[in-house]
Design brief:
The chain is α/β, with parallel strands linked by helices. The protein contains 16 helices and 15 strands. Helix 12 crosses helix 14.
Length: 407
């Protein structure tokens, strides 16, 4: 076979080149954001949580000694679907950590997968206190709020204000049960009474009228809403239609976000008291964080869940950098252990830490929704009533029964 002169010269030239060492490839950390993209928690978490995870990556990436990739999926508020997605991500798609994970039933299922696969669950938005209690795991972190904190802050404040008899409307799954139980304990400890409770199918309920009628008939001074997202909004709207506030019954949304208050409007929401660990207008740092995020999600300003998705991702990436990406990829438990060892600091929450049970330690803030005349803009919705110090906002380690804790 004849070989052309051009090919021969090209081959000779190639063989004459010195052999260069292959450039070392940077390791990659892959984060999967598992959230609600189509259900009642879509605005409370969903696309804005994904934006906030990516915001953390955007801020950290320029100095990171590793590449970072973010993917996402909708768990549809179903535990089996959430667990299956997490397992698929770990087994076949090289995901190193799962973030956000709203809906407590889903979070409990995903936490088990993460423990089995030794991968971190960076929980920003599921609130059952069980995640840092009886079912705590060395691979789980719960960032800034849970049912204990919500019940203690909002429930305690309502009882002090004279709301000493309660009726609960409760989402019938792990989160709702936990929120009702934690708040009931606070009410009873303060000398109040629980006159009744009803549990409704989640996430398939939009008509709460029969439950509200039962609350009205109970004679309770406070209607406690052990739910969140669109369910809380619908309950408050329908309670107003039934005239509960006019009849002297206080409405206590035990977990409502700023997007829900915005959806209600100040005319309906004014005077509501609620607890969040983050508010965009709290201080200079929270305003700086919001300024970076809002242009990417202008119709849904960040709440405590969104801010938690940002902050927990940033702290995770700091831990990975501290121990080295190669080591972090070997063990989720070791990475979470490093997250517990190093202090956290970010614009959304300021300085904080992660306890041995996996719970982030931050203050909680009791807010009152402003009157329309007090608001200066579409998202100027809250005024600060009280602050619960970080060490008081979280459940005492001795009460959580987390097997990782020895007190």
């Amino acid at each position: 076979m004849l070989i052309s002169r051009r090919v021969l010269l090209g081959t000779a030239a190639a063989t004459a080149l010195p052999l260069l060492p292959a450039r070392a490839q940077k390791p990659k950390i892959k984060i999967g954001v598992l959230t609600d993209l189509s259900g009642p928690y879509r605005d409370a978490v969903g696309p804005t949580s994904i934006v906030c995870v990516k915001q953390a990556v955007e801020e950290f990436a320029p100095t990171a000694p590793f590449d970072i990739e973010v993917i996402s999926a909708d768990h549809q508020n179903k535990a089996d679907i959430g667990a299956a997605i997490a397992r698929q991500w770990f087994d076949n798609e090289g995901v190193d950590a799962v973030a956000d994970v709203p809906t407590s039933s889903v979070a409990l299922a995903v936490a088990k997968v993460c423990r089995d696969k030794d991968r971190p669950m960076l929980n920003a938005s599921a609130t059952t206190a069980t995640l840092t209690g009886e079912q705590c795991a060395p691979t789980t972190v719960v960032w800034s709020f849970d049912t204990y904190e919500s019940g203690k802050s909002t429930g305690g404040a309502m009882v002090k204000a004279g709301g000493d008899s309660w009726f609960f409307i409760t989402a019938d799954y792990a989160f709702g049960h936990s929120l009702e139980e934690q708040t009931s304990a606070v009410v009873k400890k303060a000398g109040g009474k629980v006159l009744g409770a009803v549990r409704y199918p989640f996430p398939d309920t939009t008509d709460f009228s029969s439950y509200i009628a039962q609350a009205q008939a109970s004679g309770a001074k406070v209607l406690g809403l052990a739910n969140a997202g669109a369910d809380s909004v619908n309950c408050i709207k329908q309670a107003n239609e039934f005239g509960l506030p006019q009849s002297g019954i206080k409405i206590a949304p035990l977990l409502i976000f700023i997007s829900g208050v915005k959806a209600l409007g100040l005319q309906q929401a004014q005077g509501l008291r609620l607890t969040e660990t983050f508010y965009w207008d709290l201080n200079d740092r929270t305003r700086a964080f919001a300024k970076r995020v809002v242009p990417k999600t202008p119709n849904n300003w960040p709440n405590q869940a969104h801010a938690s998705a940002y902050a927990i991702t940033l702290h995770y990436l700091k831990a990975v950098a501290d121990m080295g990406a190669a080591e972090a990829k070997k063990s989720g438990a070791a990475t979470v252990g490093r997250m517990k060892q190093i202090p956290s600091d970010d614009d959304a929450f300021g300085k904080g830490s992660v306890r041995e049970d996996g719970r982030g330690v931050f203050p909680a803030y009791l807010f009152e929704v402003k009157k329309p005349s007090e608001s200066t803009g579409p998202w100027d919705l809250y005024k600060l009533i009280a602050t619960t110090p970080a060490e008081e906002a979280v459940r005492p380690l001795s009460e959580g029964h987390c097997p990782l804790v020895h007190v």
